[in-house]
Amino acid sequence: MEFYRACFRSKIRWDKLRLSLPDEIEKTLLHIRRSNRSTGVTGALLMVDQHIVQILEGQPGPVLDTVYCVMNDPRLEDIEGIIHEPADFRLFPNSLMFFRDLSDGVAASQNAVLRPLLDHPGALTRDEAYLAFSHFAGELQAGRLTNAMLMI
Ligand SMILES: Cc1cc2nc3c(=O)[nH]c(=O)nc-3n(C[C@H](O)[C@H](O)[C@H](O)COP(=O)(O)O)c2cc1C
């Protein structure tokens, strides 16, 4: 085993955001990427209306420490674990935290693999999460997304 991968969905606590949503996202991503640069953690964060879905990859210790920090973040609640397992490779090797806001539902309406991410009462399955994140990982690899989205 070389790497560890964790993926989870959490509900956003809107009452705990102190800034406007765009400012909160920008400030949080800056913080996340700075922190992940120092711990060697990479991954992706998708915002879906009332939830975020995040995937974290790296050495097991730093990934698990990061999961613990996110779990204790007051801006999130009802964390649901989706993937927790060793991994031979990273899906997002160059992304300190790839981010996409899917709340408008447009991307999800055009891609069947993104549809399960849209808010629904049931849990997101491991296979659904892998398909959705692999979609973005594939686009990054194929160079279809710009460098600005690589977040390096
Ligand atoms: C949706 C979301 C995702 C986060 N992802 C990460 C992450 O990947 N890495 C990280 O270090 N912190 C992440 N954080 C931030 C932590 O939850 C926490 O705010 C931070 O580690 C606290 O750092 P501080 O003690 O330096 O203030 C995330 C926060 C939110 C709201």
Describe the structure.
By secondary structure, the protein is of the alpha+beta class. It has one domain: 2-Layer Sandwich (Alpha-Beta Plaits). It has helices spanning 21-39, 60-71, 106-110, 126-141, 147-150, and strands at 3-12, 42-48, 51-58, 76-87, 98-101. It has a five-stranded mixed sheet with strand order 4-1-3-2-5, sandwiched between helices. A hairpin with a 2-residue loop joins strand 2 and strand 3. The longest helix is centred in the N-terminal third of the chain and has 19 residues, at 21-39. It binds flavin mononucleotide. Flavin mononucleotide binds next to helix 1, strand 3 and helix 2.
Write a compact overview of the structure shown:
This protein has one domain (3-150): Alpha-Beta Plaits (2-Layer Sandwich). It has five helices and five strands, in the order βαββαββααα. The protein has helices at residues 21-39, 60-71, 106-110, 126-141, 147-150; strands at residues 3-12, 42-48, 51-58, 76-87, 98-101.
The overall pLDDT, averaged over residues, is: 92
Instruction: Name every ligand kind in the structure.
Output: flavin mononucleotide
**Number of helical elements:** 5
How many E strands?
5
Percentage of residues assigned to helices: 25-40%
- Note the gap between the termini: 25 Å
Question: What overall form do the CA principal axes indicate?
Answer: globular
